[in-house]
Amino acid sequence: MALNIKKLLVSQPKPASEKSPYFDIAEKYGVEIDFRPFIKVEPLSAKEFRQQRINILNYSAIIFTARTAIDHFFHLCEELRVAIPETMKYFCMTEAIAVYLQKYTVYRKRKIFFAATGKLEELVVIIGKHAKENYLAPISDVHKDDLFVQLDTKKINYTKAIMFRTVSNDFSKEEEFNYDMLLFFSPSGIASLLKNFPDFKQENIKIGCFGPTTAKAVKDAGLRLDVEAPTPEAPSMTAALEQYLKSELGNAKKNGK
């Protein structure tokens, strides 16, 4: 029994670990999976950053919502020759992000705070307990404002600092683009698809995405959304993909293909 989906593109870098569920899915369902990010992140130069007129040493606390932000923050500090004082406090969205700080600074729990649940609301509550701090939030030029809306509500003193940018990862004319399914993880990925392939026609190509903002971008682009995560039954993109392929295989068997 053959699946209609034989080749799919995951718009993310190839997983470093061979234990990734994507590889299990490829083997189990006999599909070919390519990994190719539609977007990439570029650092701002020290000259570009200075145009924002932000003095990092004027702040007593940093908010990190992603490991990418940590990398770009410390690399920019190095380029600017800014020595971060030991008194600096760090507020992180998740424990994994907090632990990642060890790459750049001595991990002192009293100066590093994180939301144990990984939820934005909890992080805002923790920040609210340190309302006297002057916060700096390293972000991309493309970002969500959910955190800042909540910080405004609590009257927290913060500054957004753009330290990196999200750009389209262009495909060369020689690259084949013959996929039965495309998986996306951000609205920027959808924008990159349309930039690279302005004449893109979905037709029988299935589109899957992770997150409500990405789902909205798919629909706003006039495309059909076939697979969506997270859902109660499929909390991850790989779970949603497997659920979809399993259903398709069942239909193929039923129809005797």
Verbal overview:
- The chain is 34% helix and 21% strand.
- The protein has helices at residues 21-29, 46-50, 67-80, 95-100, 120-128, 146-153, 187-196, 212-220, 237-254; strands spanning 7-10, 32-35, 39-43, 61-64, 89-92, 112-114, 135-140, 158-168, 181-184, 206-210, 227-229.
- By secondary structure, it is an alpha/beta fold.
- Strands 3-8-7-4-5-6 form a 6-stranded mixed sheet. A 5-stranded parallel sheet has the order 2-1-9-10-11, sandwiched between helices.
- α7 links the parallel β9 and β10 (206-210).
- The chain has 2 domains: 7-38 and 174-254, Rossmann fold (3-Layer(aba) Sandwich), CATH 3.40.50.10090; 42-166, Rossmann fold, CATH 3.40.50.
